[in-house]
Specification:
Belongs to the leucine-binding protein family. Helix content is about 45%, strand content about 15%. By secondary structure, the chain is an alpha/beta fold. It has two domains: about 190 residues, 3-Layer(aba) Sandwich (Rossmann fold); about 120 residues, Rossmann fold (3-Layer(aba) Sandwich), CATH 3.40.50. It has a seven-stranded mixed beta sheet, covered by helices on one side. A five-stranded parallel beta sheet has the order 2-1-3-4-5, with helices on both faces. A two-stranded antiparallel sheet has the order 11-12. Helix 7 packs across helix 8. The N and C termini lie far apart (about 85 Å).
Amino acid sequence: MTIGRLLSLGARLAGSLPRILLGSALLAITACPARADVVVGVAVPRSGPYVAIGEQVLRGVQAAAKDTNAKGGLDGEPIVLDVQDDACDSNQATAVANHYVQANVRLVVGHVCSNASLTASDIYAANGIVMITAASVAAKLTDRGLPTIFRVCGRDDDQAKLSAAVLAERFRDRKIAILYDPSPPSRALAASTKDNLNRIGVNEALFAAFQPSDTDDAALADRLKGLGIDVVYYGGGAPEMGRLVKIAADRGFRPQWFGTSSIATPEFAKIAGSASNGVLMTFYLDPSRKTDAQAVVSAVKAQGGDPDGSLIYGYAALQALVEAGNFARSTDPRAIAKALHTERFDLVLGPVGFDAKGDVTAQGYVLYVWRDGNFNYAKTN
């Protein structure tokens, strides 16, 4: 068969062949390099109570993908994002993880909530998929030592240590309440903070669970006020804490509130209103103030966005995958995982690596305070 007839046959088949298969066929005929998109899964909550954090992470990943493709892609191939909604729900996270397995997606940025990450990570690890989270803080996620599981954010045990240290240093002689709701992250952070506080030699006046709702929030606020509580640490999310803080203020109860990284979203201040002023919070070091992140910050602002909360960490998560892939000159998840474990990379977080567990070596948590709808570093005593 002549070359002309081969090309004619290739043209007739073009409409029916998948793009990657077609690329291979044309490579055999024309000897031109084939290009194949590198599909990266992005698993975030796009429904449910943690949408705001999910959107921050997604915007960061999208910005990183745009920058990566403008610079030539991952190992010379363009990145395409496969965005899935896990709603921060374990069952939905399982469905998302199985979708990526079936779709042969080998790299995933996600998940956001620790319960979702813990469930999905078992599936990823069993199938050799690299997962890197921008927001899941549960220590158990990386303590299992799964070789393809990473995070660019901090750990909840480190966050609890800082929370306990701040409570002991600033409020040792005050009545402290530690609260949590039924969600596993809230319960874990509250328990760990209590344990660390007690080890320092400070005992809380109240350690209690409650079910967030307008009625229960009002009853809880009255109970705390009646007990003479001065400081309230709560391990819950932005919607729950925002509502509790506002309802308490409306009922004349204004203690020193203390939250976690879960309230690092403008949603908290929108719900709590002026009562959010003065609320303390532990959150990751703000990378948007680093020199390494200024180009990203400027680009996000130029597009009308706000580089707040977890956005920079979403950017860093995809950036880490890209840097590792380009170092290894491969899109193979095994090569990327090996590079992440053994090398250091210049990310928007600064020069960082990952330890044997998959935890990032970047600086962990610092103390923030809310004021006029935004949070900034709290002054040290």
